[in-house]
Structures are given as structure tokens and as C-alpha cells.
Amino acid sequence: MAAPGRHVGRFIQRNGRLLVNNLEQTCSHRSKEAVLEALAATVSRDPTAYPYQFQDDSYLAPRTSLEFKLFSLSQESGRSAAKYFVNSNPKFFTKDFAQPHIPEGSGDDHKKRKWRVRRASDLLKVTWKENNNAERIFNLLPEKDTRCYSALIRGMVMHGAYAKAFSVYTDMLNNRLTADVHIFNALISAAPDVREKYNERWDVIAELLNQMRQQKVQPNLLTFNSVLKALRRCGALGRTQARQTLNEMKALGIAPSLATFNHLLAVFFKAGSVGKSNVDILQEVMSELAGASFTCQDPDDALFFSSAMRICLDHKDLHLSYKVQSLVEVGENWRLLGDSYQQSIYYGRFFNLLCMMEHIDVVLKWYRRLIPSLYYPNSQGLRDLLQALDTDSRLDLLPTIWKDIRTLGHDNKADLVEEVLNLMARETHSPEVQESFAACALDVKSVFEGDRWRPGLDWSNSSLSHISTLLLRANKTQQAWDMLQLFKAKNRVPTEGLLEDFLSACHSNGSPQRAVELVQLSAAFCLSATPRLATRALAEFELSEEQSVRLTEERSTLRHSCWSSRDTHSSPQGVNMSTPISAEEMEEIREGFQKVDLDGNGYISASELGNLFNEVRRPLPGYKIRELLQKLDRDNDSRISLEEFTAIFQDLKNDRMAQGFRKALNKKEGIVAIGGTSEISSEGTQHSISEQERFAFANYINSSLEKDPDCRHVLPINPSTEALFKALADGVVLCKLINLSVPDTIDERTINKKKLTAFTTQENLNLALNSASAIGCQVVNIGAQDLKEGKPHLVLGLLWQIIKIGLFADIELSRNEGMYTHTHTHTHTDSHVCFYSDQSHAFVFP
């Protein structure tokens, strides 16, 4: 058994020496960095690791985009300081410890880093000034060769002097000099700026290419990229010439770069278009580039990935976006994402698409992978994440996301903070989740309060209500009571629902004293719910005699002053039309009462009543004052108290409200007048709708879309009820109806059909309105919220336009002999193919 092992050992030892000798011979012809490069190629890039410049101190690594910019600026300052010490004390820096030697970078390295920290004055440096230093130096040269002309022409093109660049090129030809490839590349890129028409621009480009052939100048990759870049500004002509340019590149054996494909996407893809051809072009490009590793050959190479991801986002193509991301992860392709600004654009679009289309577990996987090592999300990116959590019912993760929001420095965005609070307070969850929500709400409260380092946010009524609700659900009654005190301190008014919930919490905790204080707080705000809260407190709590008397007095006083609803002033149809008096109106009443009550005894005489109404801008005739006095002065003491006058004011206000609603409830045969009172005009506003139109539109939709599987959740629509307006509220039926009238107007892949939320519904309605406008509908003063609320006159008006366009599209004279006879008999048929819609209205609905 030993002999075979010994032979094997000798064989390995002998071949090992041969292998080492071969490696030494091979490595002797390579650079000193070859070993490091080989080792680096054995491991893949860790996307969660911080960039190399931050790894020395990961605890101080930037967490926000602002910190990243500040670190970049401090890094440049550190380089300058290091150079100062080296230059001031060269004797201490004589030995080079780096193996292999690290050469000093060029002084232009920092200029290549576009940190996006620029001043407005920098924008003024890009223009070409007449007879500047460059031109003067050029004119002083005794002999001007091609290199001199090349430098001047390229500088003129770079700084916007396009016509002057062509003039200098003409002078060079007159001096019997031949241009180099750099001159032609610059002039080709400037061609769209010296001509206005598309065909003239292409003629200039073709002429320059012919001159290259005549002067025997070999084109390079940048030449063809310049041609494609110019074709981006040549309209439809650019698509035809772009294909010829690619064929010419293949014939010359020039491999395209990422900039080449970026220009192709720009030529064939138009923003806002929803056609499938745009995605097909990107599919072909990604199939061509799959698995390839690129190096930077053109400055525009860094724009390809962000442009490709924009197309994926516009068309909501998640599968294609994964292909683009896979290409980024191949080799060193991630270096071609561009500077930090371009990277944020690319990853922002990718993350937006993930939140919109992917499952929440996958979204969170990418979230932990990208943030914050590769991507610092803005407030919109975090709102997209909140939308994804809401869509997949994972609101229990909101406290974790809130911590990230604070870490990323977005806790100063009021709208984002309000969105987090709204999602937490919208529904009731399990006790564990509510406990975490309450802790998160207290942390949010500290953001509103601020500290000495940063100012707090402005309290809104919704933020106060949401935090109070979250604390109540977690049985943190004392902290919720402290929030109620903030309402008064911040001049905000709590909602009636919040007070009802607080009273229920007091009942659960057995706190009658807190319930009494709650009723008194509601009375201080002059809320209409105060009598109802007092009644609940008297019925549900075991109160002491003093507490019961106090609540009874509060209820009776409030009912007879600000919130009484008298039987004699009940509204039509039995509807209670009593409206509360606002705090501003109550203060106005007190001020006017004090002005008339000269002796300050708390009463005014009947003769002073007319003057009092004039003070509060409610003048009344004499007979009206006498009627009111006879009704309210029950003790016949010929004087009016403040409580009696407040009741008069309330009666007048309710009477005007009732008159407005009587107009809104007015009905005629076949026509319904809808509306309500207007805050601007006492007459109110009214809109008329036809019940026959609603009936006809509902039947039309039922018959036209009955086989559409995406509309089964609302079809069939009952034409006799208001179901039509509810069926259109999510936007799906509207989008389908637009495609029925004008086919292929909307790419159905862009319609959100499943798991509809408030965000996706808003997208559908916006898509429907934009598409309706594109096919010729008038959508002025119609918003997505109007359609969502189902405002009848707006919905029926939009439906009429969409259906009318679809019906008129089928009207042809060849199919309607009666219409042809109706027109001039001797006129050619083609001249009557198109009718105005108002002339043909009678042919649509009899």
C-alpha cells in the first residue's frame, strides 16, 4: 500500500515544480498588478458593501445623498492638504512603501467627477466669446497645421459656436489642409444646430462623410456615434438613416459601444408613446448585449443603462428591467452607470418599477441590497415603497421603514411623514402591531416637536388626529390626552370621530373624570358632537352627582345656544339641516353683543336688537325682528340674553341652508337637478343630468364589454341605480371603453387590473383622462378625483364624448345610403366622408 502512494507523491511533486516554473515564466511577462487582477476576478462584487473610499471607517460612511456630497468635497480638501504637507516637507516623504508603486493621478481627475455641486456662475462659462484668447492665439501662430485647426474647431463646437466652427473648417480647406477624424466628429455632432429642416441636417452629415472618404480619413467609433447622436434630432428620417449607419459600421468592422445603443434607443423610442415597438427594440438590444462586458469608449456610454431602465419603467416591463440589471452586474459594467447622480436615476427607476410590479418580499430583498450602499432613495422612492407595503398588506413593517426614513434624512418631508401616519392609523391591527405603531407615533411626535439642532414640522389637524388615534389603540390614554391638549395649543380642532373613540377608551379604562373633561374640551371647541358626547357619558359611566349635574348643564346649555335642532325648522324630507356655529362666528356674535350692551348687564333691549344684527352683518327688517322677539322672549321681560340671540342666529343660518337644499332636491320629469349650497353664492349651484342618458350608457357598456374578463367585477351594471358611477370609479372600464372607441389607444399592459389601491386607481384614472384627451375629448375641469367620487354630470359628459367618438368612427357613406342621398347627389363620395359631430348628433341616439 505504501509503494503506490510514494509514486503518486513523486508524480505530484515533479508536476508541481513544472507548474511553478510555467507560472513564473508566464508571470515574468505580465505587469505587477496581474496577480491582484487575477485574484479580484475570482470573486464577484458585493453590492451591499460600501464603496472603497468609505471602507476605512464604515461607521462614518454617508447615509444620505447630502452626506455623500459633503464627503466628496472633504475628500478633495484632504487631497489638497496632503499635497501641501508633502510639498512643504519633502524630506519626510522620500521612501515609497507601496508595492507596486502607485503613480500619482493627473490633476484633472477631480474634474472628471461630476458631483453636481455647481454654482449658477459656472453655467456662464460654456459660451464662446467673439475674438477670445483662443482665437487670438490661433491667429498669432506663424504656421497653422491640422492639429491647430482641430483644437480650435472642437473648442468652438464644445462651447456652442457651431456656425463659426464650419467657417474655420472652410478656411482650413482653402489652405489645402486635410482634416483629422476629430474635426469630422465634432462637425457631425454640430450639424443639427446649423440647419432647421431634417433633410437639410442629414444632407450636411452626408456631405461631411463624403469629404472624409475623399480626404481618406478613416472613421472610428466616435464618428458613427456622432452620426447617431445627430440623427436623434432628425425626426422620422433618423430611423431610416440609423439602420444604414449600423450596416456601415458592420461593414467596416467597428464594434458598437453602449453609447451606440443609447442613441439607437433615443432614435426609435419616443417618450409618452405606449406602442409595443419601443419595447421590442429594447428587447433586441438586450439580446445582443446579454452577457457582454464593456469598457468605456465614449462619454455617452454612461447614459445607456438609465435610458434603458426609463423605457422599462414607462412600459412597466419588469422582466426586461431584470435583464438590464443583469447586464449591469456582468464584469465591470457597473462602472458605466455614470456618476452618483446618474446612478441615483438608474436605481430610482428600477426601484420604482419593483415597488409597482413586484411582490413585497422581493421588493424588500432589493431594498436591503441597494440601500444605502448603492442608492440613496428620495422621498418619491420611499413613497413607492409605502405604496408597495399597502398593496400587499404588510403595514406591520411601517415602523421599520420609518427608522430608515429617519436614517436617510427624509423625516423633514411633511408629506412623507403624513403618509406614514395615515397608513398606520387607517385600520385597526393586532395588539402587537398597534403597540409598535404607538411607539413609532411617539417617535414621529418628536420629529414634529424638533430640538435645538433642527426645527420641528408644523402640526396639521391630520397629524395630531392620527397620532392620538394610534396612542388610543395601544391603550396609552394619558399620552393621547396630552395630544388632545396640543389641538388647542396649535389652534387645531379635533374630529368628532376622535372624540368618540377617546370616550370609548375612557369607558374601557373606567375613567369617568376623564370622560367629563373630554366633554368639556369638546364644548370649548364649540363642536356639534358635544351634546351627543354628554349623553353617552351620562348613560355609560357611573358618575358622581356633581359630575352628572355638570354634564346635564353642559348639554342643556349647548343645545339651547349653538347646536339646537328645532322641530319648527326641520329640513325638507325630514333631513336635519342644523349646522354648528363656528368659533369665528361665535366670537363675532360676542363682540357685536358687547357693543350693543352698553351697560354691560348681559342683556339688550328689543329696540337694540336691530342694531345688534347690523353689527354682525345680518341686517333684518323690523317685522322680522318683532317675530323673532315674540318667539324667543318667553318671559316677556323685553330684553334678550346672549343665549337667546345665539339661538336666533342659528335659526337664520339653518333657514338659509334649507332653502339651498330645496333647490338641490328639485326634480323634473326625466331631469334631475343635483348640487348643494355654494360657499360663494347664497343661491347655490345646480347641475342637471338625464336619467335616460344614464340608462342608455349603462346598457351600452353592458353590451359592449360583457365578454371582457377584466370588467367582470363590475358588470353587468344596473341601469336603474347609481351603479354606473361606482363601476367607473377604478378607471378600468373607462380605459376599456376608450380602446373600444379608438382601438390601441391604451396599451392594456399599463392598466392596473388586480390588487387595486388608492395609488393604482389614481394611475388608471389619470391614464383614462390623458387618453380621452388624446382621442379628442374635452376633459377641462374634470379630474381623477371627480371620476373617483362619481360626480354624475362630469361622468356622463365624459362618457357621452367617448361613446360618440366610437359610434362616429363606424359611420361611412358606403354603408349608409340614406346619408349619401341626404347629401348633394352629384358630389363625389370622398368629399363627404367626414361629418361634424354636431351635424350628425341625431344619428347616434334617436
UniProtKB/TrEMBL annotation:
It is found in: Mitochondrion. Residues 691-807 form the Calponin-homology (CH) domain. PANTHER family: PENTATRICOPEPTIDE REPEAT DOMAIN-CONTAINING PROTEIN 3, SMALL RIBOSOMAL SUBUNIT PROTEIN MS39. Pfam families: CH, EF-hand_7, PPR_long, Rib_mS39_PPR. Residues 584-619, 624-655 form the EF-hand domain. Keywords: Actin-binding, Calcium, Metal-binding, Mitochondrion, Repeat, Ribonucleoprotein, Ribosomal protein, RNA-binding, rRNA-binding, Transit peptide, Translation regulation. The lineage of its organism: Eukaryota, Metazoa, Chordata, Craniata, Vertebrata. Belongs to the mitochondrion-specific ribosomal protein mS39 family. This is Small ribosomal subunit protein mS39.
